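Hey, quick one: can you model this chain's 3D structure?
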Amino acid sequence: MNIAHHIERGHLLFPDKIALIFEEKTYTYKQLNQLVNRVANVLRGLGIKKGDRVALFLPNIPEYIISYLSILKIGAIAVSVNIMFKSNEVSYILKDCAVKVVITTELHSEYVEDDLPDLQHILIAEGAATKGSSLTEMMAQASQTAHILEMDCNDPSSILYTSGTTGFPKGATLSHGNVISNSYSANNCYSIQSTDRLLLYLPLFHCFGQNAILNSALNACATIILQRRFDIEQTLKLISVHKVTMFFGVPTVFIKLLNLDLPVCNFKSIRYFFSAAAPMPVKVVQNWLDKYGSLIYEGYGLTETSPFASYNHKLKYKMGSIGSPIENVEMKVIDDNGHQVQPGELGEIVIRGPNIMLGYWNRPAETAQVIKNGWFHTGDIGRIEEDGFFYIVDRLKDMINVSGFKVYPTEVENTIYQHQAVAEVAVYGIPDPIKGEIVQASIILKANQTITQEEISLFCHQNLANFKVPQAFNFVDSIPKSQTGKVLKRLLREDSFSHSSRI
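Sure thing. Here's the predicted structure for all 503 residues.
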């Protein structure tokens, strides 16, 4: 087996079908496979072999996809590097997994240090090769045919580094079996057809973009419309011009689109909407359904689960749920002693199946902390109901302890979202010398809306227990997020956002 068999299958079955669209360029499955083969031969010519690590420090451009697939074809391991990282962060990852080759751009090559012990080559995929060698020139000299290396199910395929909100990032190592199994599950859940057109603006260095969209689309021989980054104006144009049929996003993207109050015609070509990577407020799903007549289907998982673990599917959609486990995957909720809790009770969600990573790269002790007897401990607090549907309450690390009472930010956020003046909200805990922690909220108001701290506090008191009500409301213009759209509550906690209220 090899993940890259999907691009070869597309070449054989649909050689002239459009596989990829990027800005003014289109690539058929035949052309894309030939480009992948050229890079595979470039890497082989540089001495890269099975198990060697090759880093991708690239934005969402075709060269990312081409290079990623070529690495897999020759049995090497693709290491994804966040495009927002600077020199120290990049060096840490390249050293951590002893990368031999970095494929990057002229712009980002300045963040790749020259004196890394294992790094042998820097290949520039976009821009001038002022540092390193031009990948384009090397490809021109390489053959467009290449042999694909057959891999074992448990052979590593990729290393994706976790966000590192506590301590240093860890490299979640996914196998060929992990990704192939997850791709087929995604195909089944999404019902992707070869005629579908998927918009991909989520970063390819992230597991959501890389596996849940890219590999799943190629596995179905569908068409990918690639976007460098999410930009509302350009995104809407791409949907219209290319008749996008499947739209994938994170909650903050759907919130932004809702706040624009766009007419239904903007999404008339889209048959399927999907959200993951962060909890989706129920109010947002309901508002989307009311306005556009479409459900936002939800999936749940983590980088360590490749990422798909559960799906709120068409068989029985339940608003607010993360659904039930995908095929061949088991999930349960346990207490602090590792015992399974009763339906309706809160505990930690644990997962077992072919989607569970091999482990954290060169970190057996930290791997053992999260994978116990085959079960991956997610750090997510949730519950399961009698019908087998799971619900996420919050991240264990985001839970707020107010004088011994547990406050789950997601619950408070869902309540605040029900206020008509609120566009976006993030709830987090800050230290307090008496209570241990107190609840605080940062709120973005909708255009032309005003509200006082007293008014929003009264609204919360009417809908929440007193200890759950934020002690302070900061009315802000923006909330810090990662490139994948996750709210960076760590920064909110650290900065405590001393913004004044709007009156």
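One thing worth noting: Confidence is low (pLDDT under 50) at residues 497-503.
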